[in-house]
Amino acid sequence: MTDTAPVIEIANLHKAYGALEVIKGVDITARRGDVVSLIGSSGSGKSTILRCANLLEDSQQGDILFKGEPVTWRGKGLHRHPSDPKQVLRIRTNLSMVFQQFNLWAHLTILQNVMEAPVTVLRRPRAEVEEAARGYLDKVGIADKADAYPAQLSGGQQQRAAIARALAMEPEALLFDEPTSALDPELEQEVVRVIRDLANEGRTMMIVTHDMKMAADVSDHVVFLHQGLIEEEGAPERLFGAPESERLRGFLSSTR
Ligand code: ADP
Ligand code: MG
Predict the structure, then answer these.
(1) Binding site membership of 204 for ligand 1 (Cβ less than 6 Å)
(2) Which residue, by CA, sits nearest to atom 18 of ligand 1?
(3) What range does the domain containing 197 cover?
């Protein structure tokens, strides 16, 4: 871990869906340049933590800080927005999320997908956004697909387009929720390569993944969740090389 200022600080986070408590007091810090991976069985709460950080979900207790500023949402109903829409926009811009299912706009070209939010949400000049967007497409290796539609791309290419779209917001940090799990193994590697490049660039990232090889390869810190609590965490070499908890050992042997 680096010793620069925290970009994302999650402290004693509690989250329930109705009566079902799914996050039971979790602390995670990502400092500038850190890559933090969240691993654990399905249902352990990994996606929920990212969704809370991105203000897609409210929470009942604890704090989430973005560069020291509290962004915790204590909503009452599913559709109630946090009180300050400008703050929500700023957080979502700064913590840009990449989802498992890419979520590209089917009726827009790849270039238009990447340009959409910077132009319409951030109101940046179109020409400037286009130039940057082409740069991001080049960075993820699909510059030649700028004018294609999502359906004309492989899953790996679509996910790389989704990463270019997240980068186009020029976020402070990237949040990935199982970015490779919808992909065939050979396409998975294209996406892992892009994530590794971003890690090497020193980007701040939180990555939920089932891919232990990627987690070991790109992370500064790995958090193993079990039923809404951190069961064990540490540097990847230690966590994967000498897991202490029985549950983590069981989990790791089940993923091999
Ligand atoms: P993971 O990403 O580790 O698989 P999730 O964060 O998606 O786990 O889910 C954690 C728990 O919360 C699970 O028990 C899941 O069923 C429950 N859950 C997730 N989303 C909702 C929701 N919208 N409503 C009710 N329960 C949910
Ligand atoms: Mg999940």
Answers:
(1) no
(2) 17
(3) 8-254
Neighbouring residues of 27: CB distance < 8 A, sequence distance ≥ 6 = 10, 11, 12, 13, 230
**181 found inside a domain:** yes
In three-state secondary structure terms, 232 is strand
Query: Exposure pattern of 74-106 as b/e (b: 16+ CB <10 Å)?
Result: eeeeeeeeeeeeebbeebbbbbbbbbbebebee
Tell me the pTM.
0.92
46 lines ligand 1 (CB under 6 A): yes
pLDDT tens digits, residue range 87-124? 778 888 899 999 999 899 999 999 999 999 999 999 99
Domain count, the chain: 1
User: How far is the C-alpha of 147 from the C-alpha of 179, rounded, in Å?
Assistant: 23
Q: Within a domain: residue 3?
A: no
**Can you tell me the ipTM of this complex?**
0.98
Is residue 180 situated within a structural domain?
yes
Is the minimum distance from the CB of 125 to ligand 1 under 6 angstroms? no
pLDDT digits (tens, 9 = 90+) for 33-91: 999 999 999 999 999 999 998 888 888 888 888 888 877 666 554 334 555 677 778 88
Ligand 1: residue whose CA is nearest its atom 23: 17
